[in-house]
Amino acid sequence: LVPRRTKYRKAQKGRTPLALGGSLKGTTLEWGDYGLRVNEAVRLSAKHLEVAEAALKRGLKPIRGSKVYMRVFPDIPVCIKGNETRMGKGKGTFEFWACRQMGRVIFEIGGPNLRPEMAHAVMRLAAAKLPCTSEVIDKSSVARLG
Predict the structure, then answer these.
(1) Does domain 47-81+92-135 bear CATH number 3.30.420.40?
(2) Over the stretch 51-84, which tens digit does the pLDDT of each residue have?
(3) Could you give the CA distance from residue 129 to residue 58 in angstroms, rounded to a whole number?
(4) What residue ranges do the domains of the chain occupy?
(5) Residue 122 in contact with residue 44, Cβ under 8 Å?
């Protein structure tokens, strides 16, 4: 998961957003029947997303016609300086791609033969791969404010 091109090679650190209310954008399902919503402010790396997506696909393999939708994309370059490096001499080198999320749906799954208990089990597998708390939602779940 890498952007094709970016305007700048390096980005400022930025902060994960706080839950102050406001927009409901991205907190409900768009395409699938079940989703995984992040409950806290977190920086997810491309590796986290790839591993979680692989777990979802592995769990859904026996179910014919099932599909995985990824709602987020890692587009922030993270740069890190080495350990025990003195201050100065510029910003560190590029390390990995990441995205900052708070209360958003990051994965959705859907399909004609997808049973609720199977969907919840598969989503729990993917949630275990992520460095944050998350919840499984469905079409009847309400939007999350903040």
Answers:
(1) no
(2) 999 999 999 999 999 999 999 999 999 999 999 9
(3) 13
(4) 47-81+92-135
(5) no
The rounded distance, in Å, linking the Cα atoms of 101 and 16 is 7
pTM of this structure: 0.90
Alpha-carbon distance 16 to 119, whole Å? 29
Tell me the residue type at 6: T
Helix, coil or strand: residue 43: strand
Is 107:135 a contact under the CB 8 Å cutoff? Answer: no
- Contact present, 38 and 104 (Cβ < 8 Å): yes
pLDDT, tens only, 81-107: 999 999 999 999 999 999 998 889 999
pLDDT of 18 reads 73
Residue range 120-125: mean pLDDT, rounded: 96
Phi–psi pair at 19, nearest 5 degrees = -80, 85
Cβ-in-10-Å burial (0-12, 13-18, 19+) of 47 comes to: middle
